Amino acid sequence: MPIDGEYVPSTSEWVRDQVAEYEASGGTRSNTLLDTGLPIIIFTTLGGRSGKVRKTPVMRVEHEGAYALIASKGGAPEHPLWYYNLIANPNHVMIQDGPEPFDVEVREVHGEERATWWERAVRAYPAYEEYQANTSREIPVLIAQRI
């Protein structure tokens, strides 16, 4: 089901441009992290306080149809704002990994399940390990599964 509301693009120009190009091309263009060649997906959610539609590119970490959303913020001391949007609205999320977005439900994982998904994430994007080393917070791992 589409997520209704006013779309507010990112304040970051490269994120805005990547989301627009990815969506316009059905995921055939702007589908990697800058010039790394590493694949990304786009997730759509509602702002936790504003209720506005937000779209965010993240690294593609997929396993058996589920996706990990790694709230790394490059190893910053605080979580990215989109983390709070997902926690506030875990049932109002869509993922686009290719031509068509689909509905997902999001949950944060801990313990052994987190460790398994963290390992998958680091294989997909090795910089996550450095990001974790650079912050005292445990970087949240959220799992998105099709509804």
Can you say what the CATH homologous superfamily is?
Answer: Electron Transport, Fmn-binding Protein, Chain A
> What's the SSE pattern?
HEEEEHEEHHE
End-to-end CA span: 10 Å
Low-confidence stretches: none
Q: Helix share of residues? A: 25-40%
Major beta sheet summary? 7 strands, antiparallel
Name of the CATH class: Mainly Beta
> What structural class do you assign from the helix and strand content?
alpha+beta
Domain unit count = 1
Number of distinct beta strands? 7
How many H/I helices? 4
CATH architecture: Roll
Mean pLDDT across all amino acids: 96
Radius of gyration: 14 Å
Hey, roughly how much beta strand do the residues contain? Answer: 25-35%
CATH topology: Pnp Oxidase, Chain A
**Spatial strand arrangement across the major sheet:** 2-1-5-6-7-4-3
Shape: globular
